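F.,

This is the one I mentioned.
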């Protein structure tokens, strides 16, 4: 979509979104702490961690597999926590992992939607899983970009607190990408979501620069089949040493086979 058209339509879309979200979150399911502990095998089924977040795979008695996020060292107060929970509950996009409920007993826990196929990282690094073909990898990138467009352009305030990595991108039954690390203490930062006047209309500044860097690294992961996690700089350096444009055939994930031509 043309950037000028987006800028023209954005105020009207935001006004409509504000009206549609003006009410309270009418329903947010409360999960008993003991049920979450049992479903996560005593909080042993870790999907990914940052300095302030631990994400777990949970299987409840009904057979569904969901993502549980534990908010660690959240010192903004209970009211701020609930405001953020309400904000997350109002985010609706097919490429965002939907918030289903919470638990505020022994730990502050958020329960997100189904993650039956697990994380993108598992599909890139687990030799037992069937490798992702090139068409599916392109579909994943397109989904991530669509979610970012929604978060940055069609929310007020824009949601800049988002982390993009193969560990935090979940896949549904059709291999559609679902961003799971949005808002709250995303990306290991200890802050709540607030508007930034420097980025209110266009994606500029450090926040968006970091997001674009993460997106670039994700694309490299999908091309090479290598998971970067905390070693994003190592993957970028490896690409530079190989001189990407002239040596792309050396960097392609061997699991792609003949599904893509360099």
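My design for it:
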């Amino acid at each position: 979509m043309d950037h000028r058209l987006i800028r023209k339509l954005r105020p009207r879309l935001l006004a409509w979104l504000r009206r549609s979200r003006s009410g309270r979150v009418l329903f947010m399911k409360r999960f008993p702490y003991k049920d979450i502990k049992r479903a996560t095998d005593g909080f042993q089924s870790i999907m990914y961690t940052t300095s302030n977040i631990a994400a777990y795979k949970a299987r409840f008695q009904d057979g569904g597999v969901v993502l549980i996020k534990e908010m660690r060292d959240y010192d903004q107060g209970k009211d701020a926590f609930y405001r953020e929970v309400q904000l997350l509950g109002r985010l609706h996009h097919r490429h965002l992992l939907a918030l289903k409920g919470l638990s505020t007993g022994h730990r502050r826990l958020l329960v997100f939607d189904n993650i039956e196929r697990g994380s993108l990282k598992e599909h890139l690094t687990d030799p037992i899983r069937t490798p992702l073909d090139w068409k599916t990898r392109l579909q994943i990138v397109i989904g991530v970009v669509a979610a970012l467009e929604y978060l940055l352009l069609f929310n007020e305030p824009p949601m800049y607190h988002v982390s993009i990595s193969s560990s935090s991108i979940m896949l549904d039954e059709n291999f559609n990408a679902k961003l799971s690390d949005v808002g709250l203490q995303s990306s290991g930062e200890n802050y709540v979501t607030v508007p930034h006047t420097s980025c209110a209309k266009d994606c500029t500044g450090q926040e968006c620069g970091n997001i674009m860097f993460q997106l670039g690294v994700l694309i490299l992961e999908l091309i090479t089949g290598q998971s970067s996690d905390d070693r994003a700089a190592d993957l970028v350096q490896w690409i530079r040493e190989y001189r990407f444009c002239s040596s792309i055939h050396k960097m392609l994930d061997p699991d792609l086979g003949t599904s893509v031509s360099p």
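The first strand starts at residue 29 and ends at 30.

Talk soon.
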